[in-house]
Design a protein that fits this description.
Blueprint (H helix, E strand, L loop, with lengths): L3 E6 L12 H11 L7 H7 L5 H25 L3 E7 L13 E4 L3 E4 L19 E4 L2 H13 L5 E3 L11 H10 L7 E6 L16 H15 L6 E6 L18 H12 L11 H7 L4 H11 L5 E6 L8 E6 L1
Parallel strand pairs: 1-8, 2-7, 2-8, 3-6
Antiparallel strand pairs: 1-10, 3-7, 4-5, 9-10
Length: 322
């Protein structure tokens, strides 16, 4: 049996920035929704200071939870860190749009601070480059196993669309979990946004298929001796994607239901979500977690933190599967 540590976390661009600038991102998103009317709970959280007190509180909690996950990861000392994250028209563009793609290169670079032309928590230069070594032979073996066992996994060892380096879903959590690149990094890209990522994009894969992909990865890991940390990288319901609420607010109720399944070791229930439910609640990115759940199997998670404030525009869960 494989030894697997599970980690679930958010990758939202704001996590790299101080809470004093979070309102800018929020305002950009509000501007995207025509005649945006703020829900009552959002107005309450914005309070008298345009949400600054709420943002400072959420920032503190997010930093605390990343510290806990960082410490766990380094204490566990994996041979490979596999990060499952969605590509949002970054590394994958119209010329090639796979539902899933495993990175099989030898190393990967990233410029996490280029993306947002605003202050980052470290006051680092926007051109700061991070390089991560990758487990080439291991990822090729994983890809080959997947294809031979019914999952036609795409792979890339030299991605185009690489201007910023690794997509933010992969590199943002690394800034907290392993910025030094101590552990070999294996990225798995997922087209979570589907048609909503841009013109000519194919539909996102179904929750059922994502879970099966996870289960097949697990079968591969069970043949290996490497100790693997699997990181599910994404927030859950996003307000600007929740069609049930006209893209105005996050679907807390749906996410609380999913959270209970994750907490109690019934992650396989998330594979039963329908594509319509995902679309309605703006849970597009939870597909990353569903793949991780397929790998981890039905084992209870320790929920490190939940951020469900509307000012965050997304439901953020931090979790560890020991
Ligand atoms: Fe995202």
């Amino acid at each position: 049996m494989a030894e697997i540590l599970g980690i679930g976390c958010s990758h939202g661009p704001i996590i790299l920035t101080p809470p004093e600038v979070w309102h800018k991102g929020r305002e950009r998103i509000y501007a995207r929704v025509s005649n945006y009317e703020k829900p009552a709970r959002l107005l309450e959280e914005l309070g008298q200071d345009n949400g600054l007190s709420q943002d400072r509180h959420d920032h503190e909690k997010i930093m605390e939870s990343f510290q806990i996950m960082h410490d766990k990861l380094h204490e566990w000392n994996p041979d490979v860190v596999m990060i499952i994250g969605d590509d949002q028209a970054e590394n994958f563009l119209q010329d090639n749009l796979p539902p899933f793609c495993l990175y099989t290169g030898e190393e990967a670079d990233g410029y996490p601070f280029r993306r947002a032309a605003q202050t980052n928590l470290w006051d680092a230069d926007p051109e700061t480059k991070y390089t991560f070594r990758c487990p080439k032979a291991f990822s090729q073996d994983m890809r080959n196993h997947l294809i031979r066992n019914g999952v036609d996994m795409a792979s890339s060892s030299s991605l185009k669309g690489w201007d910023w380096g690794l997509a933010h879903a992969i590199i943002n959590p690394l800034m907290f979990l392993d910025p030094e690149g101590k552990f070999p990094l294996l990225p798995l890209f997922v087209n979570c946004y589907g048609e909503e990522a841009g013109p000519d994009y194919p539909p996102r894969p179904t929750p059922k298929r994502c879970y099966e992909v996870g289960q097949t990865i697990r079968k591969f890991l069970d043949t290996r001796s490497e100790r693997v940390a699997v990181v599910a990288s994404s927030s859950w319901s996003h307000s600007f994607l929740a069609h049930k609420f006209q893209c105005r607010e996050i679907d807390i109720e749906a996410d609380q239901r999913s959270l209970e399944f994750v907490r109690t070791g019934q992650g396989s229930k998330l594979a039963e979500l329908t594509p319509e439910e995902i679309q309605d609640s703006g849970d597009h990115e939870i597909l990353n977690w569903i793949i991780a759940l397929g790998i981890l199997g039905d084992r209870p998670a320790e929920i490190v933190d939940v951020r469900d404030s509307h000012t965050q525009l997304a439901y953020r869960v931090a979790a560890i599967w020991n």
